[in-house]
Specification:
This protein is α/β, with parallel strands linked by helices and about 500 residues long. The protein has three domains: about 190 residues, Rossmann fold (3-Layer(aba) Sandwich); about 100 residues, no CATH class; about 190 residues, P-loop containing nucleotide triphosphate hydrolases (Rossmann fold, 3-Layer(aba) Sandwich), CATH 3.40.50. Helices cover about 45% and strands about 15% of the residues. It is built from 21 helices and 18 strands. The chain has a seven-stranded parallel sheet. The chain has a seven-stranded parallel sheet with strand order 14-15-13-16-17-12-18. The radius of gyration is 25 Å and the shape is globular. The two termini are about 50 Å apart.
Amino acid sequence: MLEVEVHQCLKSFLKHNQSPWHHHLTMARLVARALRLGRSALIQTGASSYQYKLSYLIPALLDQSPVIIVIPEEFQQQLLTQDIPILQQELNLNKTVEIGDYWHWQNDFSGVLLTSPQTWLSDRLANLRAFPPHIPTLIDQADDLESYTHDCLTASIISENWQELMNNCLDLQELIRDTRIKLTKAIFERPPNPYECWVVETAEKELLYQFFQEIKPYFSEVPVFAQFWQKWQSDCPLLWASINRKKGQFNLFCSPVNLAHRLSLIWEKQTVVIIGSCLDYTTEAPIFRQQIGLDNVTCVKFSPNSNKEQFQLYIPDRFPLPNTPQFEGALMAKIEEFLAYTNQIENPVVILVNDVPLKGKIGAILAGKFGSRVQVENPKLAPNSILISSWEFWQKYQFKIPIPQLLIMATLPLPSLENPLVAGKVEYYKKQKQDWFRLYLLPHSLREIQRSILSIRETQGVVALLDNRVNYRSYGAKILESLEPFARSNYIDSSWFDF
């Protein structure tokens, strides 16, 4: 059986190539079983891709049938030129491996094809048949699957498209100009917010609706507007606008709030093994599967090694809550208290702040005291730097910069209702009479906070969580459970920074 062959080859490889991740054999057998039986699976590794990728590469290379590996473009060359050649050489394998945006139908290709999530999802969602429907598919780094799908299903109208429309519809120039002026006026009259975007209101929708009725005969000449209209008329979409105040321009966007219906149509077309670091709170991943429209599959969730991946978690007692006037002052004082211990360490200190105005304040204050040590969302760091970043930036660059000895979380990564897009999604859940906090805000927070500490676990570093809602809110227990294993403390121990 494939499982036996994979187990033996992987065990032989690990004898000469040590790996800190201790679930390789179990995961590799599970992937091999999925490929052999054609049974889809969902795997939560609790680790970064570079730690566990060996566990799905060997089954893909040993399987006699063709396999598609869906992985972000920036990681494809690493697999093609380094990881896979090493495995091929040491295990005496010769399966063809290529990078591509489509399947080689004419050449009877039977190897491994690496492609990006955007390419694969765009093909599957639009039924373009660039990839055959029956090829087993391994989807790595599925933590961002919803984000990739959202981007694929979002239609946009940018400033340049209006000029293109005027050039193609000469007899409607006055209507186009008047509509654009009215929309610009309405959108720019909205109260400013840090996110520079707003949900399109009813009056603006009515204006747009009447406008699209007039330009329908010209859809063949302006496909951008045709695509936008098609998205708008399906899937209960969310419409929003972003602006560039300096240029006096706005962009319109339209995308479905509920992605499950569209994604559910693609899972039965082929066997899929969906692999991510932290997809859901529980092994069965009911909320994640609901969000992506995935029915019953084999689910596995690996736990961190309590001896090698335990980190130090600091949570202060009686700390002001984020929505109180005292919070900002207490936060700055605590950050500076921590930084006093880090003058001699080489690795950076990372401060995670999602609140845009607060991030700016912290950056300005710390830059005044620590000078060029302070960097705001800059991945090119000198030793002993202080990086201030959003959670999104940190997820992107976590493994591209030196692992920090100290990670400070100013607040929990709960999506802010001040963000119009978040508010729009919450409103959708309310209309469906669903628990928007349990189904949207909390799962997002749990996923983000688990992913943010993956690198810290490797060095058993220090995490300071300065959001005391974990102590006083009912959901705090779930957040703490999601971070285990850790050693908790309510005081700062100088020995954490002794090197």
